[in-house]
Design goal:
The complex is a heterodimer. By secondary structure, chain A is of the alpha/beta class. Chain A has helices at 3-13, 38-47, 60-69, 93-103, 113-122, 150-154, 172-181, and strands at residues 51-55, 81-85, 105-108, 125-128, 132-134, 139-142, 158-164, 168-169, 190-192, 197-198, 206-207, 214-220. A 6-stranded parallel β-sheet of chain A has the order 1-12-7-4-2-3, with helices on both faces. In chain A, strands 8-5-6-9 form a 4-stranded mixed β-sheet, with helices on both faces. In chain A, strand 5 (132-134) and strand 6 form a beta hairpin. Chain B is of the alpha/beta class. In chain B, 50% of the residues lie in helices and 11% in strands. Chain B is built from 23 helices and 13 strands. Chain B has a 6-stranded parallel β-sheet, sandwiched between helices. A 4-stranded mixed β-sheet of chain B has the order 8-5-6-9, with helices on both faces. A 3-stranded antiparallel β-sheet of chain B has the order 11-12-13, with no helix packed on it. In chain B, a hairpin with a 2-residue loop joins strand 11 and strand 12 (443-444). Classes of the chains: A alpha/beta, B alpha/beta. At the A-B interface, helix 1, helix 5, helix 6, helix 7 and strand 9 of A face helix 3, helix 4, helix 5, strand 1 and helix 9 of B. Strand 9 (190-192) of chain A pairs antiparallel with strand 9 (279-283) of chain B.
């Protein structure tokens, strides 16, 4: 149907209908926050079955390696497994590469979309950064631009996020201000809160429905 | 063609009554138990989520935002379309189901698509999209686990946020085993069944030519779409296939991201008690030239299908609905008959109001009676829809549009009897005689016509041996 006709019909139906203006301030919601502390972030993350820790830069290598070895009960050494690593964590490339080698993982940095899709589907781990973390909910905002291809954060079994602690914001409202600012520069940002889950069979919670079974966040001091 | 014609198995045949569907639902003895457990859990979590907050203030704010947006809907839709098109999204305004399905068919065939990965979308259920595309020979796979289960079972979804709530783990295990032709039966544990579906659906995500998704909110300012999921299927459907088609009811608009800060948590907390779901996905448009993955084409279908005619009525606030399902969780009728009892995509109180408004009284005029008018639905609604008042209002309208002759005759007679004391007394004493063959103690369990339909569901109190007037006059 023609847009003008479609909207014109609705306009006629609403003729003479009025009401108060748009309210601009709201009470605190269940997702609002009061402070951006790492403790609050980690507690919220754990409450939704996520894992994470606050770590100094010098200890990052060990923290990543420990997280990855814990991944499958320490069997990682038996089999060469792969990790895809996005460009947005290039600041931490040295620590990541060393940790992956410690844990017996092969590092893959694909280039094209097709390569990303293929490698990320096979990878045990996707390592990305995030634009921010939400302290009240334990969420991370993934930009999904060229520096953080979508495949890396949704296809692997484990999603490991390396997030500088100064990128924490108190609540969802602050995170959405950033999302609003990305509207023309990023085609599909997304906010991730814990591992993928479903309760569609008899309300029993199961992790790893379609996305990562495991979400691990290293907050770097 | 209307929504009902294209909707295949998902809606009742014209003429089928709520009463009949409810009876067949009630024959499934396990159903109230299963649905009761699921809905109780959700309602308990919803209450807990708001207990430490200004719940009434939040609801007033959310209602005000929705009311303002709906009153200014044409302007916001126009702004949304401009902003979305500026980023390369194609926006199509669909008058009805046929219009919407026609557009999707056109896009799908232009790409020679064969496999379609589908995310959860009530609007696409409403227009019978999957059935229509399957009739064209396409393979359409629902990817939300609950929706995937009911699709394999050939059932419509039975709850807005828990589509397979009516099935047990054993049902699902048997279903997967037979649908995939497995030699060994799958064990009936939810983790294993989920893993099985994950592996199968992963191939669908990666192999699909087109993704079809619903929309929780569309942001007018930026032309963005917002999708809420826990499983991640929303993210995969909107990211993996080269072409994305989003279907949204025309009322799904919010002015800006600021209002999302209120409405997203209101939706999630009302549905599940959590503050946020696992994934809040935003679709700002097709993949940018600098980006390496994401769809090259994004289409948005904005659906009227009867909504605009609600705008000028007293029922306008039904368009505030953000599809959380809280009203279903507290509804005593829904909890007994389940979503399938309503013969419509939308069950429970929201469905009992919305369905007759969308498809007409002729087809769904009995749904407003599928309620006890207890008002629990209105109490939990996060956007302040006076659902039980709408149910009452619709009953009035349905009656005004023409009650059955027999009903009008009975009530006409009734009012005459009550107008005159002598006639009333005579009627009372006659009833005592007439009820004798049917009354057992103080109850009538099976009354003859025209009261038979009443006593099929409940007892009729028998007329007392002596009336109050008789006893009074003897004092």
């Amino acid at each position: 149907m023609d847009r003008t006709a479609f909207l014109g019909r609705a306009r006629r139906r609403l003729q003479g209908v009025g009401g108060p203006g748009l309210v601009t301030s709201f009470p605190a919601t269940p997702a609002s926050g009061t402070d951006a502390s790492p403790e609050r972030f980690l507690a919220a993350l754990r409450a939704v079955n996520g894992e994470g820790l606050l770590v100094a830069r010098v200890a990052l290598r060990d923290a990543i390696a420990t997280a990855l070895i814990a991944d499958d009960g320490g069997q990682a050494q038996d089999m060469k497994r792969s990790a895809v690593v996005t460009p947005d964590v290039s600041d931490f490339a040295a620590e990541i590469d060393a940790a992956l080698s410690d844990a017996g993982f092969e590092v893959v940095r694909p280039a094209t979309g097709q390569e990303w899709r293929e490698h990320a589907s096979m990878a045990a781990v996707g390592i990305t950064s995030a634009l921010l973390g939400v302290a009240s909910t334990g969420s991370v905002l993934i930009g999904s631009d060229a520096n953080s291809p979508r495949a890396a954060s949704i296809l692997p079994e484990t999603h490991l996020v390396i997030l500088p602690v100064n990128r924490l914001v108190p609540g969802l409202e602050e995170a959405l201000e950033t999302v609003a600012a990305l509207a023309t520069t990023h085609s599909a940002p997304f906010l991730v809160t814990g591992p993928s889950r479903t309760s569609d069979i008899e309300m029993e919670m199961v992790l790893g429905a379609h996305g990562p079974r495991r979400l691990y966040v290293c907050l770097v001091e | 063609m209307t929504a009902m014609d294209t909707a295949g198995s998902d809606t009742a045949a014209p003429g089928a009554r709520f009463e009949d569907r409810a009876r067949s639902q009630l024959a499934k003895k396990h159903l109230p138990l299963v649905i009761g457990r699921a809905t109780d859990t959700r309602e308990g979590r919803r209450r807990a989520a708001f207990s430490s907050l200004d719940g009434p203030g939040l609801r007033r704010a959310a209602e005000a935002v929705r009311a303002y947006t709906i009153v200014n809907l044409p302007d916001y839709l126009s702004r949304f379309a401009d902003a979305a098109e500026a980023k390369g999204t194609k926006v199509f305004f669909a008058d009805d189901a046929e219009d919407a399905v026609g557009y999707v068919r056109q896009v799908v065939s232009a790409h020679g698509a064969r496999l379609i990965a589908k995310g959860k979308s009530m609007a696409s259920e409403e227009i019978g999209l999957s059935h229509a595309l399957e009739a064209d020979g396409l393979r359409v796979v629902e990817t939300d686990l609950g929706e995937y289960i009911v699709q394999l079972a050939g059932d419509p979804p039975s709850h807005i946020t828990a589509p397979a709530v009516h099935m047990s783990r054993g049902d699902v295990a048997r279903l997967f085993t037979s649908a995939h032709g497995l030699a060994e039966p799958l064990p009936d544990d939810p983790a294993g069944l989920t893993a099985f579906a994950r592996a199968h659906l992963r191939e669908v995500f990666l192999g699909a030519d087109v993704g079809i998704c619903g929309v929780n909110f569309a942001v007018a300012d930026s032309g963005s779409l917002s999708l809420v999921t826990n499983e991640g299927n929303g993210r995969l459907v909107t990211s993996m296939p080269k072409v994305l088609i989003a279907i949204m009811g025309m009322e799904r608009i919010v002015p800006s991201f600021k209002e999302l800060g209120l409405l997203l948590p209101m939706l999630v907390a009302s549905a599940s008690g959590r503050a946020v779901t696992t994934y809040f996905s935003f679709v700002n448009g097709p993949r940018l030239p600098s980006e390496v993955d994401g769809p090259d084409e994004v289409h948005v279908v904005v659906l009227d299908n009867g909504r605009s005619q609600i705008l000028s009525t007293e029922f306008r606030s039904i368009l505030h609905c953000i599809r959380c399902g809280a009203c279903q969780n507290v509804c005593p009728v829904y909890r007994h008959v389940g979503g399938h009892g309503y013969g419509s995509v939308y069950g429970g109180p929201i469905g009992a109001v919305l369905t007759p408004l969308l498809v007409g009284f002729e087809r769904a005029g009995d749904l407003p009676h599928a309620s006890s008018l207890c008002g629990a639905c209105s109490e939990v609604c996060p956007v302040g829809i006076p659902l039980h008042e709408h149910l009452l209002g619709l009953r009035r309208e349905v009656a005004a549009a023409g009650a059955p002759v027999s009903e009008r005759a009975v009530f006409g007679l009734w009012s005459r009897v009550w107008e005159r004391a002598r006639v009333y007394r005579w009627f009372a004493s006659m009833s005592r005689v007439a009820q004798a063959p049917f009354a057992r103690g103080r109850r009538i369990r099976h009354a003859p016509w025209p009261l038979g339909r009443w006593t099929r569901e409940r007892d009729l109190p028998a007329v007392a041996r002596r009336t109050f007037r008789e006893r009074w006059s003897e004092r």
